[in-house]
Amino acid sequence: MKLEELYEIIKNRRKLNPKGSYIAGLMDMGLDRIAQKVGEEAIEVIIAAKNFDKNKIVSESADLLFHLLILLESSGITLNDIYEELRSRNK
Questions:
Q1: Domain ranges of the chain
Q2: Would you say 60 and 40 are in contact if contact means Cβ atoms under 8 Å apart?
Q3: Which distant-in-sequence residues (6+ apart) come within 8 Å of 80 by Cβ?
Q4: What pLDDT, in 10s, does the model give residues 40-59?
Q5: How far is CA 29 from CA 7, 45, 57, in A?
Q6: How many of the other CB atoms lie within 10 Å of CB of 7?
Q7: Which residue pairs from 48-55 have beta carbons closer than 8 angstroms and sit at least 24 positions apart in sequence?
Q8: What is the pTM of this model?
Q9: What is the percent of the chain with per-residue pLDDT over 90, rounded to a whole number?
Q10: How confident is residue 90, by pLDDT bands cut at 50, 70 and 90?
């Protein structure tokens, strides 16, 4: 799955707010909880890297990207905003 596809799913879940949706529920908890989840996942990536556990790095990185996309969407930031920033650094 591409990040753009996942971001669209997140946007859709936020908009529709379906009952039982992890994404919608997390968004309902607010930015502090979302940011906490991003922090937790980042720490888990670091621990996996320190343990030289490739499978765990991949798994935890997927969790981190997922929660980071939720944070971006809840903050009104698009992937294009991020891409533009990265492009501006390559000049």
A1: 3-88
A2: no
A3: none
A4: 999 999 999 999 999 999 99
A5: 19, 23, 27
A6: 17
A7: none
A8: 0.94
A9: 98
A10: confident
